[in-house]
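Hello support,

Our group uses your service weekly, and this is the first time we've seen a run hang past the timeout. The protein is Exodeoxyribonuclease 7 small subunit. I'm not sure whether the cause is the sequence or the server load. Input pasted verbatim:
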Amino acid sequence: MSDKSSSFGFESALSELEALVTRMESGELTLEDSLEAFEKGIGLTRQCQQALAAAEQRVQLLMERNGQSDAQPFQSGDASE
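Update from on-call engineer: The timeout came from a worker crash unrelated to the input. Re-ran successfully.
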């Protein structure tokens, strides 16, 4: 169950981060509100990075358990990168 909750935490944090960016880009926030949003965004970014690092570790462990110990770099299906 912790797998789903950590995934949900990542999705939730990412969604919240995207909403913060949209609000900040709108230009409607005061300087103080922008600073608070930026600070919260930094925390959410760190939370997302930690979740991604944990997921990467799990994938590596699973690959090692299945006898595929040579790590391959992840390539997304997005051709724009």
